[in-house]
Amino acid sequence: MEKLSAQDPRGVGAYRLLARLGSGGLGRVYLGRSEGGSTVAVRVVRRELAGQPAFRAGLREMVAAARRVTGAWTVPVVDADTEAEVPWVVSDYVAAPTLLSLVSLVPGGGTGHGPLPARSVRVLASGLAHALEDIHGAGLVHRDFKPSNIFITERGPLVRDFGIARALDTATDGGLRLTGALIGSPGFMSPEQVRGEAVTAASDVFSLGSVLTYAATGRLPFGGTDSSAHALQLRITQEEPDTSGLPEGLGRLVRDCLSKDPARRPSARAVLSRVGGPETAGEPWLPADVLGELTQHTVRLSATPKPPADPTPQRAQPLPPPAQQPTQQQQTQQPYIYPLRHHDYHQPLPRQQQPQPPAFGHPLPPPSSFADAYVDAPAAHPADGGDEPPARSKRATVALIAVAVVVAIGAGGAVYSVMGSGSPKTGAMASSASSASGATSHASALPPPPPNVSTASTSSSVSASPSPSPKGDVPQRFVGTWNGGVRTKDGYSPRRLVIKQGKAGDTVLVLTADGAAKGKRGYHCEFTAPLAARPSGAAASPLRIGPSSVKVGQPKSSCAPGAPTTLTIQPDGTLRRATAGGKSQTYKRG
């Protein structure tokens, strides 16, 4: 991650830019902040691509399809403006390591735990198959499915950058040559990609076989660190894969995925049926030593840098020609086994003296240190987002359970804080960074800084009745009072939602959270949140809410603002409130 230079824009659309994360084939990627304080990744398209009509058409198609991918195993695209002079695309920022950095033992390739154990690989396979099924179901082919595009969280994998390679393909179809760009990564390309043929969902399944081989063995099925891109491509098209060392039961599946004939490869759904779920429900899906590394890595990524001093709105400027891009620095940061791969832009953030206010809606950490966040983690507390393990998918047989070693992450480094005898203990649950606030794509003014939680009043109570508009956009089925809660070792902690009528931007939700603490001082938090966007007319359309703000915090240190959430009415009449990271809470009307 780098500081913004004088040539970098300070804002794109409604997003304030904080730092430069890296650069890829599509353009530069920035760390950004939405109007509500949520942390996002903002990708600004290259100048030479923006002038290509064929590319713009492909980008529109990619963004429209990517927005239909809403599963719990993918990093969502939350905003975009494909018609701007310089187009941009916004996705969630995930404070977690990639599969590449977790497994790699190559110098410069990451902390390098090495190959994952058999059970972890099986759970990984199931989560990735779910992600591919969601991507393919939206009419997309990923085309660049590789370890650096897979985040590893304590709840499972998250896949990013689906559809970007297709958008780049439209540029090359239009005759534009991208300096240093390669559509796909050599070690994980399918034979049809290598030959330049049309690709289908089966191409991603081939890449899945290569990814699982890498996760289980630490090497590629068609070559290792001594392989050039050309040698890898030659082996992919002509030789059989080396699947030795794969866990029992996975070898045959991986070999089927790596079939040279696309028609002989299983579909993502067939992979799911063959992998099954984890062997023991209730256990972490990663071994303890990996969880420790994951915790430390995630905490390093969780702090966000301070916004640039100049708050003056600036339009996104075209990027300089490729010759001026810092490609040498990017290439030296990558392991040799992935020649010409795009920059892995989720790198540790610059060290901050104080953690920034979080954007996830959990209690705040003490300002002195994160050290205590790794041990003796208490149960979840006033979580403005969700407290139950998420129902990943109705098709899922995998249950990825939250780990015992919990980590302080989220867009601003939020941690759970238990108020005991006056001294808080800290712990947290990993989550993907929160999504954008739902502001329109063409907004030009920069957002204000995130709300200062420490100044939230604790002397007055928030009314549990959001002010409705005369005519609102909230479907009547959501309106009313909903009750839920979570049972912890300290007792039952109730949650109460009040939803009223209003239009997009109006405050329509109040959440009250109270916590028990074994007879000691507990907590009382009250949050409010606006309607993020007008829902579609579909009968089962979900409701997008937030991000939320803290109105009452007793004590102040126990409550923090929350990320945007989605409300859905379930078939049994209950209401499910879920974050983009998969955390959820169920409420009953009452």
UniProtKB/TrEMBL annotation:
Cross-referenced Gene3D superfamilies: Phosphorylase Kinase, domain 1, Transferase(Phosphotransferase) domain 1
UniProt region (Disordered), positions on chain: 260-286, 302-333, 347-391, 422-493, 546-590
Gene Ontology molecular-function annotations: ATP binding; protein serine/threonine kinase activity
Pfam families: Pkinase
Annotated transmembrane regions: 398-419
Entry keyword set: ATP-binding, Kinase, Membrane, Nucleotide-binding, Serine/threonine-protein kinase, Transferase, Transmembrane, Transmembrane helix
Biased composition (Pro residues): 355-368
Biased amino acid composition, Low complexity: 428-445, 453-466
Domain Protein kinase residues, every copy: 15-286
CDD domains: STKc_PknB_like
InterPro entries tied to this protein: Kinase-like_dom_sf (IPR011009), Prot_kinase_dom (IPR000719), Ser/Thr_kinase_AS (IPR008271)
Descriptive protein name: Serine/threonine protein kinase
Taxonomic path: Bacteria, Bacillati, Actinomycetota, Actinomycetes, Kitasatosporales
